[in-house]
């Protein structure tokens, strides 16, 4: 029997920690489960830049990936593995809703789990936040932890 995969989106917020706690409890209940911990650095490929700016951008992406691992993903993975859970980690650039959904499809995940962030800026109010875009586009059930 194949393990059940759960994709958890972290953002470094207390809401992300609650999503991770929810995934931990769900994984314990399922027993044969893999938690895929993911942090997405919001990034748009639709910007126009010079060759020099693109070169700097590549370096900036590598630095952002390193920082996300160091500050958010790696500590979460270490905690879960320390509790005997099976965990995979990912840091990606792009639209968070698209990346989480793609990761769920690629891993055959049964569920995506994210935390609800209370405050929204004006752009999110107009165009929708990650949770709204994820619910509208996800191919698997999405749980938003309050």
Mean pLDDT: 89
| CA(first)-CA(last) distance | 32 Å
Indicate the low-confidence ranges by residue numbers: none
Describe the strand arrangement of the main beta sheet, using strand numbers: 3-2-1-4-5
Order of helices and strands: EHEHEHEHHE
Structural class: alpha/beta
Total number of β-strand segments? 5
Total helical elements? 5
Shape: globular
Radius of gyration: 16 Å
Helix fraction by DSSP (H/I, runs of at least 4):
40-55%
Question: Can I get a quick summary?
Answer:
The chain contains five helices and five strands; from the N terminus they run E-H-E-H-E-H-E-H-H-E. It is α/β, with parallel strands linked by helices and 146 residues long.
Walkthrough of the structure:
The protein has 5 helices and 5 strands, in the order βαβαβαβααβ. Strand 2 (33-42), helix 2 (51-82) and strand 3 form a beta-alpha-beta unit. With 146 residues, the protein is an alpha/beta fold. Helix 3 (96-107) packs across helix 5.
